[in-house]
Each structure stands twice: as C-alpha cells, then as structure tokens.
Amino acid sequence: MGVKKDKMSVTQLTIITAINMMGSGIIMLPTKLAEVGTMSILSWVVTVLGALALAYSFAQCGMFTRKNGGMGGYAEYSFGKAGSFMANYTYSVSLLIANAAIAISAVGYASVLMGMELSPLAVGLWTIFTLWLATVLNFGGARITGRLSSFTVWGVIIPVFIISIFGWFWFSGDLYIKSWNPHHLSFFTGVSDSIAITLWAFLGLESAAANMDAVENPKKNVPIACLGGTIGVAIIYIVSTNVMAGIVPNLDLLHSNAPFGLAFALMFNPLAGKIVMGLMVISCFGSLLGWQFTIAQVFKGGAEEGYFPKVFEKLTGNGVPLLGMLIITIIQSLLSLMTISPTLAKQFYILVNLAVVTNVIPYLLSMASVKVMQKEEHVNEHKSKITNIIAMIASIYSLYALYTAGFEAMMYGSIVTFAGWTLYGIVSYKYNKDYEEVK
C-alpha cells in the first residue's frame, strides 16, 4: 500500500504532461497565426492529429523499450549507436535553439510592458542578457530551479484559461470571419504556413512517457495521460488563439510583440494588459530557468554516453554542470546575434523553425524504430500493427512539418544534422567491438 501512495494517478500525470507542453510555447502564437488569418484553425486540426499520433507512439515506446536514453534509446533499435547518437545530438541542439526563442519571447513582452521600442540589435543584446541571467541563477542547484519553474508556469496558464473561458463575451463573429484569409493565401499555403509554429507549441510531448515509473498501472495510464494531455492542450491552444482572433483585429495582432497583453487591454483595460504581460514575462523567465538547467543535464547525459566532450560531465559541489551551462549559453548568445532580424517576431520565428527542424529528426528516428522495437520485445502482433500504422502517420506528419518549416530552416537544420555525422565519426570508435575487446 505504501508504494501505491507514492504513485501518481492518471489525472495527475495528464496534468503534468499538459503543463510540460504549455510552458511558454503559446505566448507568441497569435502573432504568427495572424500572418495566415483565422483559417490557421485548419493547421491546428492537422497538427493535433499529428501530435496525437506522436504522443501515442511515444507512450508505446516508453513501455516497450528496455534501453535507456529516451529517444536515443528508441532510435538504437533500428539504427544502432549511430542512430542513438543522432537522436541525442539533434534533440540537444533543438533544446539549445528553443531556449533562445523562449528568451526572445520574454524580451518581447518585457519591451511592451516597459513601453520600450527596441532596435534589432537591442533585441539580440537583451536576449543574450536574459539567457545569461537564467544561467547564473541556476548556479544554486536543481531544487531552487524546480520550485521556481513549477510556480512561474501559472503566469501563462492563468491568462490562457481566462481568455478561453471569458473571452467569448468580447468575441466578434464578424471580425473573425473578416480575418479568415486577409492575405489572400491559397488553401495549401494557408494551412502549411502555420504548421511549424503549431508543432512548436506541442514540443515536449515526447517527455510524457518519462514518468512511467511514477504512475499507477503504466501500461494503461501512460497512453491515456499522453493522449489526454495532448488533447487538453490542443483544446486550450485552439480556443484561446481563435477567441483572440475574434477580439483583436488581425493587423494589430500581426504587429504585436505581446499579443495576450493586447487582448486583455482590449477586454478589460490597459492595466489588465500590463498585468498579463508581467505574468507572461515571469512565466517565460521561469520556463527559461528550468530549461537552461535541463539542457545542461541533457548534454551531461550525452557526455556520460560518450557522445559529447567530457567537459559537460563536470559538476560543482552542489551538483550543477557549471562548465556545460557556460558553454551552452555562449553558443546561445552567438545564435542570438546570428539570427538578428528586422523585427523581434521575425527573429523568434527563425529560431522556432530551426528548433522544429532539429527536433523532428529524433521524432523520425524514433518512429522508424517502432516496428523493430516491438519485434525485439515480442509485443502482441495485433497491437503492434495498430502502433505501426499510427507511427507511420506520425512520420508522415513529421516530414510535412519539415517541409513547412521553409528552405532557410531546412538548410541550416541540415547543416547542423550533417555536422552530427562528423561528430559521431570522431567518437564512433568507442562502440566498435574490436576496440572494446582491446580495452
């Protein structure tokens, strides 16, 4: 009985899964969706189906696998150590890029809150300052970071829930219809232009299976929590962004660095807008704080596997991978300078698309390994057929997401991915049987 009390219920795991996905992914969404108009709701439908297929497949992978290392462990079934390395490497890079995008979100909301007009260079410099501040605050260790992050995430969740429930009192059907396709895009272009940003909002769904040891009856409850969390988040995303499109004119959303603040200012008053902006800055920074520590831990895990340099393994007395954090933040600072763009929103989307491209690589490697994994683990044949079909749907969606990210993101993402093969060539001797025997 004592063990059962320590286990999470399916409801608790579903909530944790949903919160992991929400984070700060939503706060700049309405501005990007305004480039398409309210027809972007069709992109949500496509992405929700793709995200559900991915969530279900990852839930099954989490239960079938006997290998450690998350997506790296899944990829190893089909692609060996090379696949495991590439999944770990591209996932690590995607987190590194995503955090720079989260920092830009915080800068965008803070600049509107303070009434500041920032030049492109100033956006880059403030982003770098924000990243370094989050890194320095992480020197205190995991416990402080964890407490702050679990508290600050409500700065996003509360405003999103309020606008989803009460925003309908300010909703204009006429405004929503006028905003359907304001830029006269073709149907395919309209749907495709929003796919990458809507997938960005779901990144983290792969972490849902990580808590399977902490939940009651994982074989039944992990898939329920994965799918339930994804559906719950999907409803919140779709409702909040579409309600907002019926409250704020499309052109105003399109040019806003703080769309949720703008919506609350129109619904209530400018003070309410500023309070929401403040909450979202705090939430963004809390998310950044947690993810900076998580990225350092991911690189540390990769170093322990022999994938990354040993420097990422080194810990301070209170268990902080300090040197790894400093190297990661230097890379993010360079990335922030390299992607400086005419507008803050443009720089944010460049990073988002690049993060999506690099994150989709381990998704594809994992989905391609599902069939082999099930054969090796002797999964029931009927159940494995269903999972294989769903994994194939998830793969097709992932390939479509790569296409919609655009040529620039694909080009840079490809260079980063191909560089991974070079890096694997340097460390691959460690996984050679002859080397192991000599050793």
TrEMBL record:
Pfam families (alphabetical): AA_permease_2 (PF13520)
InterPro entries: AA/rel_permease1 (IPR002293), Amino_acid_antiprt (IPR004754), APC_superfamily (IPR050367), Symport/antiport_PotE (IPR027566)
Source organism superkingdom: Bacteria
Subcellular location: Cell membrane
Membrane-spanning parts: 12-29, 41-59, 89-112, 118-139, 151-171, 183-203, 224-248, 275-299, 320-341, 347-365, 386-403, 409-429
Membrane topology field: Multi-pass membrane protein
UniProt entry keywords in alphabetical sequence: Amino-acid transport, Cell membrane, Membrane, Transmembrane, Transmembrane helix, Transport
GO cellular component: a single term: plasma membrane
GO molecular function: putrescine:ornithine antiporter activity
Entry's family note: Belongs to the amino acid-polyamine-organocation (APC) superfamily. Basic amino acid/polyamine antiporter (APA) (TC 2.A.3.2) family.
NCBIfam families per the UniProt record, alphabetical: 2A0302, antiport_PotE, PRK10655.1
Protein name: Putrescine transporter
